[in-house]
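quick one if you have a minute, typing this from the bus. below you get a single protein, a line of residues and a line of whole numbers that encode the local backbone shape. could you go over both lines and see whether the tokens make sense for that sequence. anything you notice is useful, everything is just below.
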Amino acid sequence: YGLYDYLRNSIQQLELPQRKAALIVPAFETLHYRLTFPKSKAELLSMLDMGSLYTFRYHVWPKGHAPTDYAKWRTATVPYRVAWQPDFEPYVVVRRDCPRYDQRFVGFGWNKVSHIMELDAQEYELLVLPNAFMIHMPHAPSFDISKFRLSVGYRGCLQTLREEFHQDLSRRYGAAALKYLTAERSL
């Protein structure tokens, strides 16, 4: 409730139109098909503590949202900066003129990861909003994630696209892009 207005106010207060920043909206999830949506951060924290909500994908893909630093978010009252880490894929609000998603990554896999990586390469600040949140509701697996899980060919194609993406980052950003390749190889 009130996220739209909060985002608009944050965009103004943080002068987003004049700076390169991505505003991170922390993501949570429920395993229940019915949920009384929390009306405030305090209600969300209570639900989190009671176990009816969880940090997003903590049980299947913690690397995707761990850099959000949920422990810090619990008590944050002002936006805080986080650093890029491998496989980080937060939900963000950015200016219209930011880099677009790489169209190679359609279906399941690496669309948000590659986008955040490119934002970081262009030196965008990654700012977590202290009073914003979203909740993912359970649903059946998508056709594309099923293909990813079942097809060696699909996973192989995705790996090839990831390698091409890294090469493109290296061409565009030079030595600054080496950290992405190094991070990928150490995984």
Q: What stands out?
A: Helices lie at 3-13, 41-50, 70-75, 111-121, 143-150, 152-173, 178-186.
